[in-house]
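S., here's the first fold you wanted:
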Amino acid sequence: MKLDLKPLAQQPGGVLPFALQMDLSDVEWSGTKPFAQPVHVEGQVRNRAGALELKARLDTVLSLICDRCAKPFQREKAVEYETLLAFELANGESDDIVELNQDGELELDELMREVFLLEMDTKNLCSEDCKGLCPGCGADLNREPCRCKKEIDPRWAKLAQLLEPEEADQ
C-alpha cells in the first residue's frame, strides 16, 4: 500500500488515516511460523506545521513455542510506532526520520513489516514463572517433579551413609 503524501504536505493540520492487514504467514521466526493471523495496522499521517508525523498501532495474535518447556501457546502482540516523514534528508540518512520516495510516496507495507519484525521478542515464554524441562530426565517441571536420582558428591558419600540408617528408623 502506497500513501501519496504530496497533497497532505500542502494542508497544514491535515490528516490522512490508513488501515491495512499484513499477511506475514511466510515469515519464519526462531524455527517456527508464528503469524497464523494477519497483523492489523491502523494509523494516520498528520501535517503538523509542515512536518509530517506518522503514528500507527500494529497488533495480532502470535502462535509461539515456549523456549523453556517447548509447549505451544498464543500471545497477543501490539506495537505502537511514531516517526517523522521527510521528502529528503539533509544528511542522507536518519534513524528517527523515514524518507519518502522521489514521488512523495510512502511504501507503508514495507515500513510496517520492518517495524513489526524489529519489535518481535527474542525469547518467548508461556508464562513468566515457567520452570521449563529437566535437563536430565526431560520432565516438564511445570506439571511434575524431576525424576532424576540425586547424585551424591563423592566427598560427602561417607556422611550420607551415616544419615541413611537414621532416615530408615523414622
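And the second, which I think is the more interesting of the pair:
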Amino acid sequence: RLVKLPLPSFKGMWAATEKLDQIVRSLVQQAVQHRGDDVVSGLLDASFEGESLPQEAVRDEAMTRRLAGQGTTATAPAW
C-alpha cells in the first residue's frame, strides 16, 4: 500500500497518529484512576449485556469520537 512507503509525509502522519494514540490512552488511564463527568469515564462505566467495555474498546471509541468531531468541524467551513 502507498501509505506504507517511507515518504516524509507518511512518516509525519504515522508520528502524529502515534502521538494521538498516546494521548488517548493516557486519558483512558486517568479516567480509570479518577472517574469524572466526561465521555471517557462514561464509556468506562457503560455496560453491554451486563459486561463493561474493555479499555481497548474505550480507547477505540474515544479515538473515533475525537476524529469524527474534527472531520465534521473541518468540513463545515468548506460548505
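Why I say that: The chain has a mean pLDDT of 84. The chain has three helices and two strands.

Talk tomorrow,
H.
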